[in-house]
Amino acid sequence: MNIWSSGEQRPLDNVHFRTFLFTLDYVLKSSSMSDEFMRQTLCRTNDVLNDTDNMILTDKDGNQLVRSDEYPLVQVEHRRYYQEAMQGKEYVSDVLISLANNTLITVLEVPVLGEKGNVVGMVQRDYNLSALQDYIKTLANENTKVIITDSVGNLVAHSENLFEDALKNNQLVSLGSHPAVQAGLAGKTGTMVVKKSLTGVAKGPPMLLSYIRNDISGWVIVTGRSYSFIWQDVIKNTLIAGTVGIILLLVIALLAAFVAERATRKIRALSALKT
User: HSE on the CB side for 17, CA within 13 Å?
Assistant: First the structure.
């Protein structure tokens, strides 16, 4: 979060310019701003972003200073997202278990930069994965399945119900051995046929899977459709095309017979007169 940058848009830069100033003053302790005032400032920012996820301000030593929620402040120096922030980089984390409330989250962070460009702290937003899980289920149906993993193969969200208990208990679920996930983690994009369920934990009818990795987060998205459903569409479309083709051939044949009849009628009449 560099308030002196000129024109470059950053992922969390849709907050008001005054929030930048408040953030910098609070991190540097250059004013008598209270913790509650800063917390309310973060809450107002959350109102603009219109979601229930929390925002946290952390100093350059990894100590959380203030949160928009009511959970306790924790030390995050060992977290990779903090280490990336201290290098002046924005970062999207893999799936984590929150130190504050023990829920599964992913973290988006942006460094707070001082006037000379030095890193003085970090702003992060913790995204609860249950919201993404609910959204993924709206995209899927009986014949279309979706899973998302992070950059190390841990499950982020899915459209099936195989891991509900694990997710409810905030347990990490690894899908790193899934062939499509492995291919995606290797940076490949493509399709494959597997004879397992989409999540690869049970045998099932053949499925056609498509996979791709997001370059920013390193996350992998896999979508799947049963082979039988795809072939039903292929056969249906083939039958429709074949039926239409036969009808067109009949129409053309009738039209050709009609034109031939018209073209030879006078010839046959003249032949009859001569005879």
Answer: 5
